[in-house]
Structure formats: structure tokens, C-alpha cells
## 1
Amino acid sequence: MASNHPETELIPYLRGELSAAERARVAAHLDGCAQCRESAQASSAILSRLARAVDDVREPEWADYRAELKRKLRAAQAGRSRGRWWADLQLPVFGWPSIAMGAAAVAVLAIAIVMHRGARSPQAPGVDQLELQQELSSADVGLLANYRVVEHLDLLENYDVIEHLDELGPEGRQNNATPS
Amino acid sequence: MEPSDEELCRRVAERDADAFELMVDRHQARAYRLACSILGNEADARDVSQDAFIRLYQSAGRFDGRSRFSTWFYRILVNLCIDYRRRNRWWRQMAPLARSGGDDPDERAFDPASSEAGPEGEAMLSQSTSRLRRALEKLSPQQRAAVLLQTQEGFTSREIGEVLKCSENTARVHVHRAIAQLRKLLQSE
């Protein structure tokens, strides 16, 4: 029965890692199981092949390697001594850009959620919404500041409106915000 | 008498530059080779193994002596290698041929060649090693690390478990699956 084959113990057996009792049990199984004997032989061949493969690795010039390591270590130490607390976070190479993109994505999501809520409630905007709108107006977010106008426009038919969006006053926005 | 790794590590924690230099000198070749085997790329192996030494320098004080120094240090190294591969997975998928070399489709199926067989035997050995490396590339990082720690560093299953933060039995499963997968891959070529 396949489940009785000591598959994961064959390599520890070959390497002499097993206890005496385990070794005896695996040895007894191998005596009567050609499949496991074949598996053990094949595994042994691959293990020795892997061990020899390490000799083929071309080594660097160790003096250069150590000099480069010293430079990197000095740079790392200098960064730490300047109080760069974020150096302790040991972020991967692309860590900070990823965090920036993540923050941007969260910000966009937050804006989208607030806009969506605003679109569903026709009442006067709350304090939070007003603050957000003021922030949006002052921020360089382009069409988002005139979202209520834009959402009811046909982009092809109302190209002129889009082109002069910045010139629209509050009244124009209100009129355009009403769906026809 | 040569100081032990554990003694050197204690001195490194006290910012003893000579001890650190001795430590690097003692482990650089093994660390580089293991990183090279896991990453399959010499330049990456150089960077990552150097990073491991920097981490060693910075965190030597955290080595508590409960395990062998080599187990502790190789845990740092293997984790860095695995993280590095994970981060650069997309790039490796785009440029898989840049590193391993030996992509001759006429290469013979895997069979151990003797290095005493003259130039032809050497060539076969080189091709065979290339196939082995390509097959290694297809293993999961844990399987690759497990089998390489065993064959190249002589770690036991228990020590592999300590490096990979898993049980001894799980380490055995990693090694078993790695070897089974290598057999399958090498036979199918």
C-alpha cells in the first residue's frame, strides 16, 4: 500500500539521520520493496549530483567582494546613525514606491466613496464633504473638482463644456449637475 | 585556537571589526554559493549574500545561542534569497534565459557524467549541471532551499526546519518533494 512506503524517510535514512529503530524499520521495508529501493538509489544519485554542482559556481574575487561589502556596511551604518528610523524597517528595494502607490490608491478609493455618497444624497453637503470639496478645489485633481458636472456629460457631445470647465461658476455647475 | 562562530558573533555584537572580518572570511564562500544555487544568478548572489552579512552585523546581538550560529545565519540568508526571488518574480519570468546558459535542445537526458572522462566528459558534465540548475529553478523556494541546505551545507532535517521555521517532518517533506520533482523534471528532458 502506497501509504506505507516510508517516502519522506528514505533520504534521512540514506544520510544516517534516523534513530536506530527508524533505521531498522526503513531497512526492513527496503528489503521487501523494489519500488522504494529504486527510489532510494535515484534520490541518492541526485543528491550527490547536487553536491557536486556547487563546485561549478564561479566565485567572485573575494578582496573585491569584501571591499564592496565594507562600503555597503558603511553606507548602512551612516544611514542608521543619521537617525533614519525607516532604515530599520528593512523594506525591499521596491518597498517605498509600493507604499506610495498603495497610499495613492487608498486616497483615490476614499475620494470615490465620498463622491458616491454625495451623488446618492441630494441634500446640502455636510461639513466633511465641504471640507473635502475645498481640498479638492485647491488640489491639482483636474476634472474631479467638477465631478458633478462631468458625470452628466456626454464626453463627445459636450466637448466645449469640458474644455471650458474651469470657467464654470457655481450656478453653471448646479445647472449642469441636474440630469436632463 | 580559532574562535568559534558563536564567540565571533558575540564579538561582532560588540562591534569588533576584526571579528566581523574573520566571520565574513569564514562564511563568504559558503554563503555566496548557497545564494547562487538558490537564486541562480551570480550578481544577485553577490548582493544578497552581502546583505546577509550586513544583517549579521546589525543583528548579531539578537543571536541567543540556542541554535548553531550557522543555522541562525543561514536563516537570514535563505530568507533574503526567498524574499529576493519573490520580489523579482515578474522580472525572472520575462528574462529566464539570461542566467542559466546551456540551453542546447540537443542536450542529453540527465545522467551522472564522470569528470575523469576527458574533454567530452567535462562538456557532458557541464551540460548536465546546466540541466540540474534549470530543474532547480522550477522548484518552490522552500523546496530549493531545503534540498540545497542538505546537499551543500550538510544540514540535517531538524536544522533545515530551524532555518525554514518549520518542523523536522515538514523539512523532510520539502526535501522529498524536491528530489521527486527533480527526478521527474530531469527524466522528462
## 2
Amino acid sequence: MKYFIFIFIFITYINVSFPFSSQAQTAVPSKSLDENIENLRENIQEKVKEKLSEITDNEKPHPKKAYVGTITDINETELKIKNGENNYEFTIAEDATFANLKLAKIKLSDLKIGQNVLVLSLNKDTLIYAKRIIQVDPEKLENKRLTISGTIADISTTDSVFTFIPANNGGKEMQMKYSDKTEIRSRENKVIKFSDLKKGQKIISVCNQAQNQSYSTLRLISL
Amino acid sequence: MITLESPMIKTLILTIIFGLIVGLGLGGTVFYLRQTQKSNQSPSTIIPTLAPENNSENDLKPSPSPANTDTKITITSHQNYDIVTTSKITLKGSTTLADSVIIISTPVNVYQGTTDKDGNFSQSIDLESGYNHLTISVINSNNQENHINYYLTYSTAKIE
């Protein structure tokens, strides 16, 4: 009887363990699954590397920069300029060139403290070299245009003037002039007419700074 | 002598057949259960899915928050104070204000474009020779706006 029970258990065990042994034999798909996962991991790592290099490249300062400022110190080898709160220091390159307001060549000795200059520089070997120093008039370099969003409060029926309430100026009205040269565009940058603009309409005005309390508009954009 | 008809052999054959039936039954059941479990697990293991982009309907609509909320403009194509060697450049960047108007004012021209639903923009502009003070403004119809100054110098002088 014991013998029969042993045979029964043995045959049952062989049959039960058969599916597991058949799984072990078909280990190839799981191997290809591992390969897929490995490939996927490598692809993700490559993408992450690419993105990281893009970010770091963008954050790395470009070597060629130009700065405007007032000379605060200058000698044969060094130049210091100041623009607002920013101070810049340069090593004057041996092959540096110098120019006056009319872009005529001048000498280093023509540059004095207090003069306004544009410095074209090159960052190389941890030093910032001044390669080209040009005298400038900072007033002429400043972009004095304003871009303001707001609402048309009123439109004159007699003059090319309208009253404008900026969205972010405490409701203080501004008087704006327009002319044939004023470009009037839709939000999608399509040409429209001034007559398309109505009282109460939201617009963006790109204008020059006020002269005689009136701003001359360069472009009006319907929102 | 043991023959096929002897009771011992009969019992042995019956035991083998019974063992086969029980074993195959149990083995088959276990195999089926394991296969079912594996097929349920496999999709999440083999195909990792990326998290969806932030493009829900709420994000596509302009935020109803009041004007002067903090917005940001980032220029990705150039860095501030860069020297460029061509007069025509494409200024690319992004802003936190999606679906808005972007206005780039150079010393001579005004350029207008729009940002896409993700706040990205790309605008081709012409620079004047020398130092260019650009003002870049982003404004949407909810009066949310932001403005930045950018300084680019167009020069063909050799700087090496």
C-alpha cells in the first residue's frame, strides 16, 4: 500500500511541476523583455543627457557680450565701466580697437573717465577682454517706446486723438494721438482700420513717450 | 507469477492513471493561474507611459486672475547682452502667459506675434547695426502683462 501511495505522489508531483519546468524552458521571452527594458532605459538616459546638455549650454554664458556704461577707471591694461548698479571690469586686449561717436578710429589715450562707451568683449581663459571700445551717446541707445494695455475711454470726432485708460495705471487717463503712420492690427496681426476700434474696447498701444502730454502711437492692437 | 490480470498490477495501473489525472489537473490549474497573472502585469512592465502634458482645458483658457499677477518671459535663443553677427535673428522664448500677444520693440520697428497654448513664441526681427535695446512685452486679454528689456549688439567686427 505504501508503495502505491509513493507512486501516486510521485506521478502527481511530476505532473504538477511540469508547467513550471516548461516555463523555465521558455525563458527566452523574459530575456527579450529584459532587453527591451534595458533598451528603453538607455533611450531614456540618452534623452535626459540631451536635455541636460541643452539646459547647461543655455545657462553657460556666451563668450561674446557687449555692454554700455560710463568709464569709471581706465589705464593701459584695464577698463572699468558702470551702468546703473552694474559694474563691469575688462582687460584691454592687445589688439583692441577704439572709435569715437562718428566711428572714426581713436587711441586708448583718448578715452577718459566719465565718457560713455560700448564695450564689445570676449570671455576667454577666465578673463574678459575688451576687444572694441566705442564712444556712444546713451540717450540715443535707449528704447523709449512704451507698450501699454488698456481700454479706449473716448474717441475724438474732430481730431486724431483718443483717450486711453491703462489697465495697470490706477485708472489715470492718457491722451493718445494716431496718424496715417500708426499701424492698426488685430490680435492675429491682420491690418484693420481705426474705425474698427470702438469705445470700451481693450487694446494694446505701442507709443513714444509723451510730448505735450500726448503720446503718439506707433501701433494699436485690438485684443 | 505476476500477470496483467493480477490485482496488484491492476491497482498499480489505476494508481498511475489517477495520479496522472490529479497531477495534470492541478498542474494545469496552477499554469493557467500563473499565465493569467503574468498577462495582467505585463502591460505596465513593458510599456512605461509618460505622464501627460499639462494641457487640461483649464490650462488652455486664460486665467481669470486679476491683472499684474507675476508672469515671466524667458528668452531661449539668445542671452542678454549677446553679440550677434547677423542683422536678422529669430528670437525664441517662452512665457507663463499662454495665448497672449507678444510685442517686440526694437529701436526702429515693432514686431507682433502670439504665444501658443504652452506660452512658447518665435519671432523673426531685424536688428540695427550696433547696440539694440529691445523691449519685449507679453499681454493677454485679461490685462495680465509682463515686460522685459533685452540688449543685443549686432556687429560683424572680428572678436576672437
